[in-house]
Amino acid sequence: MEDKYVIPMLSGERWWGGRAADGMSMPYGMDAFEADLIETLGMNQAAPLLLSSKGRYVWSEEPFAFSFSAEDLVISNGKSKVTVAEGFENLREAFRQAASRHFPARDIC
């Protein structure tokens, strides 16, 4: 596993996810921001998933740290493989793909 992933920001791209407690800072990508899901989950409301308005997502089975600048999204300190996927139409499709691939709903009836 790589220790650090640097993902160049696309023009006008905005991101959501990470900790619910950071909702006032979303969407990410307009200002510098950093969070460490390993150190603090923010009232236990967090997920190692970031979703982009440009149809991309970042997912891991374990928490990671992330930071945004005007140029890059940097993922670091992850304890498991980080998946960076792109090519989806929009944020909705990025979420649908991430959900179906990494945490699909199961019928429990």
Characterize the structure shown.
The protein has 109 residues and is mainly beta. The chain has a single domain, classed as glycosyl hydrolase (family 31) (Immunoglobulin-like, Sandwich), CATH 2.60.40.1760. 11% of the residues lie in helices and 35% in strands. The chain has a four-stranded antiparallel beta sheet with strand order 1-7-6-3, with no helix packed on it. A four-stranded antiparallel beta sheet has the order 2-4-5-8, with helices on one face. The model has no long low-confidence stretch (mean pLDDT 91).
Key terms:
about 110 residues, mainly beta, four-stranded antiparallel beta sheet
Radius of gyration: 13 Å
Q: State the domain count.
A: 1
Helix content: 10-25%
CATH topology: Immunoglobulin-like
- Count of individual beta strands: 8
Q: Give the overall silhouette.
A: globular
**Which CATH class is shown?**
Mainly Beta
Mean pLDDT: 91
Strand content: 25-35%
Which strand order do you get reading across the main beta sheet?
1-7-6-3
Distance between the termini: 37 Å
- Uncertain residue segments: none
Please state the second-level CATH architecture.
Sandwich
The CATH H-level superfamily is glycosyl hydrolase (family 31)
Sequence of secondary-structure elements: EEEEEEEEH
Number of helices: 1
Biggest beta-sheet profile: 4 strands, antiparallel
Secondary structural class: mainly beta
Question: Topology, please?
Answer:
Blueprint: E1 4-8, E2 15-19, E3 33-36, E4 46-52, E5 57-60, E6 65-68, E7 72-76, E8 82-85, H1 91-102
Antiparallel strand pairs: 1-7, 2-4, 3-6, 4-5, 5-8, 6-7
